[in-house]
Amino acid sequence: MQKKEVSMAELFFDLVFVYVLSTINQTVQHVSQSLVSFESLGKNLVLFLVFYSIWVYHTLLINRFFEQKWYQYVFLFTDMFLILCLSKAINSNFQETFIPFASITACIYVSLMVQYFLNHMLIRHRLSNRLIRVYLTGLGLTIIFFILGLVLPKNINFWFFMIGIIIAVSNPGVCWRASKQNPVFFSHLTERLSLFMIILFGEGIVQIVPTIKLSNFNVLDIVYFILIVSMFIIYSFHYKGSLDQEKNDDSGLITIYIHLFIIYATNIVFLIMHKALSAHTLSSGEQIGYTLAFCLFLFGIFIDTILHRDIDKGKKLYVGIILAATILGLVITNIHFITIVEILAILLLCGMYYGENKSILNKYL
Asked: Organism's domain of life (predicted)?
């Protein structure tokens, strides 16, 4: 399959989503005193799924159809503006801004639906009609539930909106056979995911900056900077050692869904990290959530790695290191010591992986 490059417009588009994640984090901080309360995590997850589902549909659309046509750019920048408007409707009290939030989300999905149909009709491609029907059906059902949510009374309306989001997120996976018969440009997809992660790591570093005081330097700023760098390194090793290759028969769905957990876990880590650096006292629940988010991040990378590259030996050792770091994190009661444990675990995993894949990774170092 011919290699497809990521365009500058796509990178520009991704910047908006990282801004949105930052906005979600700022909103969730005011939901309750604990960042890992059921309400906080629930609202964080719902908002995350809304934007991640939009990103996935848009990324798969560009992956399969984008040929730098003028109307494709018009749709791309229109969607970008709508997403910015949608970010302004993010509120810790869903009902307060439900009408504009659900309305703009529905408009974005209508735009995506029109784009799938229009590109299918106007561009010569290798995709089957079945795949297009799958996406149009999923988007259409999602829009119907959004409209029902807009006309139904309060409290009931949210659940119809939520059903629409679940349909949107799960539809590509449920209809995986159609996607398997119409593989994506795999290296393009993984490059988009990796660049999204890099921007997200950059956002994590930006969160450290406000806490740095030259007149009263804190060594913890260095510790958390090293943490983000170590997360960046292990993800880079994962991408360059496992994902940076073209495949002729991959739907990309497994990698997309695994990255849902990787991105969400990374975001939770940065959310709790920011609270710790702001000198706020963390509850035991938040420290547990911090540790489990790291566990999810590392297992997500590990699973995605073994699915795309054979690890001849040491699988049990990789799992053992992740579990040991998680158990220690759950036992330790100080978040700064938990962070040091996670850094050491990540560096150990990186060292092992580099030793086994030195010939591949040296091409990029």
From this structure: Bacteria
- CA 85 vs. chain centroid, Å, equals 20
- Rg (alpha carbons) of the chain, rounded to whole number: 21
Q: Look up residue 338 and give its two tokens.
A: 């938990």
Query: Distance between CA 342 and CA 336 in Å, rounded?
Result: 10
**Segments of the chain scoring below 70 in pLDDT:** 1-2, 125-126, 243-250, 311-313, 363-365
Residue 111 near residue 77 (C-beta atoms within 8 A): no
Residue located via tokens 């990787």: 262
pTM, full prediction: 0.91
Q: CA–CA distance from 122 to each of 117, 133, 266, 289 (Å)?
A: 9, 16, 39, 48
User: Cα separation of 252 and 258, whole Å?
Assistant: 10
**Distance from C-alpha of 78 to C-alpha of 314, rounded to nearest angstrom:** 48
Question: pLDDT tens for residues 207-249?
Answer: 888 888 877 778 888 999 999 999 999 999 888 877 656 666 6
- Alpha helices, DSSP H only, in the chain? 8-28, 38-65, 70-88, 98-122, 129-151, 156-174, 176-180, 186-208, 219-238, 253-277, 284-308, 315-331, 335-356, 358-361
Q: Which residue has the tokens 């906005």?
A: 23
Q: What pLDDT digit, counting tens, does each position of 83-124 carry?
A: 999 999 988 888 888 999 999 999 999 999 999 999 888 877
pLDDT reported for residue 246: 61
Which residue ranges make up each domain of the chain?
8-180, 186-361
Backbone angles phi, psi at 50, to 5 degrees: -60, -50
Percent of the chain residues past pLDDT 90, beyond the cut: 45
> Which pLDDT value is given to residue 24?
85
> Any residues with CB less than 8 A from the CB of 311 and at least 6 apart, and which?
305, 318, 356
Half-sphere exposure of 295 (CA within 13 A, CB side): 17
CA distance 352 to 358: 10
